[in-house]
Amino acid sequence: MINKLRAILFRKKIKRIIFGLGSNLGDRNFYLDKAVQDLEMQLDLRNIKRSRIFKNPAMLLPDSPLEWDQEFFNIAVSADVNLKKFPPQKILEIVKNIEKKLGRRAREKWSPREIDIDILLIEDLKIQIDDKLIIPHPGLMEREFFRKTVGEIEAEFLKNEK
């Protein structure tokens, strides 16, 4: 009976995914709104929840240029995604394409950016593909803006990560 239940759960193709989105360059509200729209359309997301905007200081490396110190707008978005249609690597590819489409360019680490989209969680999955895709996101519990925005829409997922 237990093996049968595990097989049923493993085959579950619809999972809850949580994204963390941030912007600290240009029209931050526009970039967040457009990114959510694009994620919804391109990943065929269902049952979407979106947190309020949480404003916070930029995370900077020591000796970062002063002009990089621009306030971030952060949100979390959760939704149901079909992992048979969109496996995690495909989701990452779509996320990177959305960032590029919205004007994000390759820049130095921690520099200001139009949009940053992170895959924070996919229910109970644990994934590591080199350092390109790590789920749950390694900074999930350390970064206040992740905890606050995710906690607002999917608090039960944070309890599982402690």
Describe the structure.
By secondary structure, the protein is of the alpha+beta class. The protein has a single domain (17-161), classed as Alpha-Beta Plaits, CATH 3.30.70. Helices cover 36% and strands 26% of the residues. The chain has 4 helices and 7 strands; from the N terminus they run αβαβββαβββα. It has helices at residues 2-11, 28-43, 88-101, 144-161; strands at 14-23, 46-50, 54-56, 72-82, 116-122, 127-129, 133-135. The strands form 2 sheets. Strands 1, 2, 3, 4 and 5 form a 5-stranded antiparallel sheet that branches. Strands 6-7 form a two-stranded antiparallel sheet. β6 (127-129) and β7 (133-135) form a beta hairpin.
Q: How many domains make up the coordinates?
A: 1
Q: Strand share of the residues?
A: 25-35%
CATH topology: Alpha-Beta Plaits
- Poorly predicted ranges: 1-10
Order of helices and strands: HEHEEEHEEEH
Q: Number of helical runs?
A: 4
> What is the share of helical residues?
25-40%
Describe the main β-sheet briefly: 5 strands, antiparallel
CATH uppermost class: Alpha Beta
Which class of secondary structure composition applies to the elements?
alpha+beta
N- to C-terminal separation? 30 Å
CATH architecture: 2-Layer Sandwich
Q: Shape, please? A: globular
CA-based gyration radius: 16 Å
DSSP, total strands: 7
Overall mean pLDDT: 88
- The fourth-level CATH homologous superfamily is 7,8-Dihydro-6-hydroxymethylpterin-pyrophosphokinase HPPK
